[in-house]
Design goal:
The structure is a homotetramer of 248-residue chains.
Chain A lengths: L1 H14 L6 H16 L8 E7 L4 E4 L16 E3 L4 E3 L8 H10 L5 E5 L2 H8 L9 H4 L8 E2 L4 H5 L2 H12 L10 E4 L3 E6 L2 H24 L8 H12 L9
Parallel strand pairs in A: 6-7
Antiparallel strand pairs in A: 1-2, 1-5, 2-3, 3-4, 5-8, 7-8
Helix pairs in contact in A: 3-7, 4-8
Chain lengths: 248, 248, 248, 248
């Protein structure tokens, strides 16, 4: 069985003092730095993680560390239950939310949480982001939903894990890859993708769409969502079986 | 007949392995890159094309290609019916919309489609851009109109071509050069000009005017369009027979 | 009489082929370029001029010339009736508006007209800019007024001069130096100062104050102007006889 | 007693002609320059100060001096009653407001006053900044309050000192370090912190939160503040006795 074999390898490598997760940690470090460069995080308000499904580990931004100083060796690695596997620094306080998503959404490879301006403002206004146009429909198959805030009980015990659970419940009847983002009420966006790099692209696009939705509502507070047949056309032109966008 | 002659020339040149459309492709490449630099496109959300009326060919941005890597040799060339004449990459999915405009508007030399922020938000809000001031009147002779969204039938079969046809119908009683832009409802702006470079200037100005109109409505939601006699004065001061603006 | 003497000097200098107005043209050129750098003009939508009261001449931006290429020798010089005194290029089409202001406001040394975003949007929304806070009160003694649009008759004959006259009438009962700016309805701001450099500072401040007023109205559409006693305190703390701001 | 000892040292140092407050003045100079670089001040609209509690002196930005030219030797030093201790330039006109805060709030080490855009617009709109989300709750324990404008009598005599007194009264029942900022109605924000560097961070965060609150209200004018139990959770997760954010 491949998994056992790879765990076996891991041990060998460890004995040789050469860390196993270099590529994973490099990618997580690069995307966390990119979050800052893309203007999606202010101060240290954001974190990105990636999962290695083969080895059942997650690498994530350390808590409260400055992006300017972050290096791959600072990135902690944990298993899917959150136990530390490698690294000296504490993982982001939001780790448990990431883990809840990795455990529930089998096809995602990366998760990003930011407080990017417009997406966070929709979360604070407790509004989902409607699909107002084809720009949105090219990436998200319908409105970006709003997960409810955790209850007092959910805050008291296991707050960050419960935040993840509320997101998962919001996607009960929806494919998480056809709408790779959610707004947590009063908090901000969580975004994902098949890879952490794709999650980064989705986080950038989400912020742009949120900004467009805010301006659209400003111009016409009674703006209506795009017609369903146009939503279908645009989403499927890029993502359906008969997609004909790009050089594929 | 000139057209036959030029097709003849094309064949000769092809045999010599020296491409015919170098200048056209260079200009199209340069303007597509400028769209990105001017902040009019995010990701790959935009495309520019130019027509060579002599040779009846259109050069256009390839589909889904990154602006940073785009070179003139990547630019596909098609005839006015959309048949590939030169180039290896697939043209933009919006090619047919461009072709509909070139076929209907005899005096235009370039077409640009973007999802630039403010113009797209007016399209999403399903509002034309009113002429609120002399800045607008210096470039567009009245409001920038809103073309209706394509119907389900128009989406199902020949969606992109039909989008172009709807634009053309919107200009049934209006000179496309005195108002070189349109908003397609729920989608975004299409802009044109006598050359692709002029279309680029118009796309930049349109975005600025859309931003001004949005702020104007924010300050006073009941703002009224500019008086007709002021619209006439400003548009004709720059574009009329007795224009006296600039160094002409 | 000094004026005669200086005209006499002018002739001597001219015969020696050394232009008289080098410093004036340099300053006008520098401020026009600064308008662009400060983000107050888009395209060629703006112009600055300065008057030399000794010699009764005005230097102004040439019409429709790109800021990137502008040099002092391009700056036309006219007398206070608008007759060309020096220079090959046509003055800005807005010259007559500037002249109306120089003729009526004896203490101003420079005039600037821009289509800067927020100030122009107030002009388009046909709203004066209220004094909402001490930031405004530090520079403008009360709201920035709105001049009415010219009538059809005023547009037909001498449009630009009449625009200036309407501004002057708006200041009938107000000191133009205690409120060195006006909004022309449906058009944009005109700003002035004791020197062209001071007019530039006022144009920058006006735009910032207009932006603040727009956001203030967004947060609370019923925002009220600053109390008179606070307006007096702040304006006079910087500009009154007993001013105690700065290192004076 | 330590204080006496240090005053003694001061005298010795003075006799040697080596100024005592070099480090304090350097830090005040650096933070004032940072205010400009961070986009929190326009023109000279802002000032930062720091207190040395040991020596009972305050160093503050000089009045109306350009940030680009400011050097540590320009920074005036005064005692807690405002008497000049060192430096040739006049202190900021707002000095008395700073002193009122240092005298009343024993734990603060730095004070910053800016006219940063969004925070000032809330002050002009005479609205406190509600805590709309967890981003706010991570830094400010509840809404950022609005101090009333000074009365005509308070303006006439000791305006700047009275402004400080009104701020202190606003915090009568509130810990100034759990909410290190206030808006003065019709004026702008005052921000503080345990050090001047922490005050700078708070000033940056305040502006970001004010911007988020403005957009939140734009998206949903009826947005409600964050639930108390979520406010508690987030503020205490970072600042409480059992804080578990960061690498502590």
């Amino acid at each position: 069985m491949i998994r056992v074999h790879s765990v076996h390898n891991l041990h060998i490598v460890h004995r040789k003092n050469k860390p196993m997760y270099e590529e994973l940690k490099s990618r997580v470090c690069a995307v966390n730095i990119a979050l800052k460069e893309q203007g999606l995080v202010f101060q240290t308000w954001g974190n990105a993680s990636a999962v290695d499904r083969e080895q059942s580990v997650v690498a994530i931004k350390p808590s409260g560390v400055d992006y300017a100083e972050m290096k791959p060796e600072h990135i902690p690695v944990v298993d899917l239950q959150g136990n530390k596997v490698e690294g000296e620094l504490k993982p982001s306080v939001d780790l448990a939310s990431h883990l809840a998503l990795y455990n529930a959404f089998a096809d995602i490879g990366g998760v990003i949480h930011t407080h990017s301006h417009y997406a966070t403002c929709f979360a604070q206004a407790r509004r989902e982001i409607p699909c107002f146009g084809t720009t949105h429909a090219d990436y998200f198959y319908g409105s970006v939903p709003l997960a409810p805030p955790p209850s007092p009980g959910q805050v008291k015990d296991g707050y960050e894990w419960n935040t993840g659970v509320l997101i998962v419940e919001t996607f009960m009847n929806r494919d998480p890859l056809s709408c790779p983002a959610v707004l947590v009420a009063g908090h901000g966006p969580f975004v994902w993708g098949q890879t952490i790099e794709k999650a980064l692209e989705n986080a950038c696009v989400l912020e742009e769409l949120a900004k467009m939705a805010a301006t659209t509502l400003e111009i016409n507070p009674k703006s209506m969502p795009l017609e369903d047949y146009l939503l279908n056309k645009h989403f499927l032109r890029k993502h359906g079986e008969n997609a004909y966008y790009g050089q594929k």
